[in-house]
């Protein structure tokens, strides 16, 4: 628990900004989360993040109560691309769920991380230790993993600031005539189908850049670069412009190639190391199942 008495010079500041400045090993987004969860009180009352403090206010900040994760470590032989005392980068295989949930209590990336890594952050709660961001079950590729809460906050801040490099390779239906493009269309829950996301007027900002890598007969291979990280963003955006992902059971056509899920690979990930301040970038090749499909398409196109 932390107690702060607001002085004259800080009067008028937003409470989330003030706390982020005055408390060590935290961030503004973390403070906003604590305020939302009623872990911050001013003069004994819960306030909103935009509350402007007054001289003499007594601010109490409670720490989050971490719950020991009830997860069974499993030796899943994960491909750890990088590991140090603060952060790890893992190459998630296609078909693996990121964290335990209903229907997937084991065999997840988190189960494997619990076995292979010594420490994981606790910020995301009991079932998602270390997980800073996620990719879909049938999307393969790179993820950042935080080993402590301070590192977790720093990595989340970079995601919020849109400074993390995230490049995906995607195979889509149709032949895209132009070599590059940018899709700016807000994404939210589909009001007609709650299990899906869609481009809707009151959705959250979503920006995807794409470059054409190769054209095949009835298909196009593209590189997608994310400015934002909305749920199913690439899958929704490419469908929105008329080029849905191949193999996508949710957003693609029913008749498609056999690929056991969408043809999407998070191949490049770059970020600033929270401890050293060094920019680090990692790239992993396409999985074999993706390469096999491209080889088949090449033969059909030639």
From TrEMBL:
<comment type="similarity">
    <text>Belongs to the pseudouridine synthase RluA family.</text>
</comment>
<feature type="active site">
    <location>
        <position position="136"/>
    </location>
</feature>
<dbReference type="GO" id="GO:0003723">
    <property type="term" value="F:RNA binding"/>
</dbReference>
<keyword id="KW-0413">Isomerase</keyword>
<keyword id="KW-0694">RNA-binding</keyword>
<comment type="function">
    <text>Responsible for synthesis of pseudouridine from uracil.</text>
</comment>
<dbReference type="InterPro" id="IPR006224">
    <property type="entry name" value="PsdUridine_synth_RluA-like_CS"/>
</dbReference>
<protein>
    <recommendedName>
        <fullName>Pseudouridine synthase</fullName>
        <ecNumber>5.4.99.-</ecNumber>
    </recommendedName>
</protein>
<dbReference type="Pfam" id="PF00849">
    <property type="entry name" value="PseudoU_synth_2"/>
</dbReference>
<dbReference type="Pfam" id="PF01479">
    <property type="entry name" value="S4"/>
</dbReference>
<dbReference type="InterPro" id="IPR006145">
    <property type="entry name" value="PsdUridine_synth_RsuA/RluA"/>
</dbReference>
<dbReference type="InterPro" id="IPR050188">
    <property type="entry name" value="RluA_PseudoU_synthase"/>
</dbReference>
<feature type="domain" description="RNA-binding S4">
    <location>
        <begin position="13"/>
        <end position="77"/>
    </location>
</feature>
<dbReference type="InterPro" id="IPR002942">
    <property type="entry name" value="S4_RNA-bd"/>
</dbReference>
<dbReference type="InterPro" id="IPR020103">
    <property type="entry name" value="PsdUridine_synth_cat_dom_sf"/>
</dbReference>
<dbReference type="GO" id="GO:0000455">
    <property type="term" value="P:enzyme-directed rRNA pseudouridine synthesis"/>
</dbReference>
<dbReference type="InterPro" id="IPR036986">
    <property type="entry name" value="S4_RNA-bd_sf"/>
</dbReference>
<dbReference type="InterPro" id="IPR006225">
    <property type="entry name" value="PsdUridine_synth_RluC/D"/>
</dbReference>
<dbReference type="GO" id="GO:0120159">
    <property type="term" value="F:rRNA pseudouridine synthase activity"/>
</dbReference>
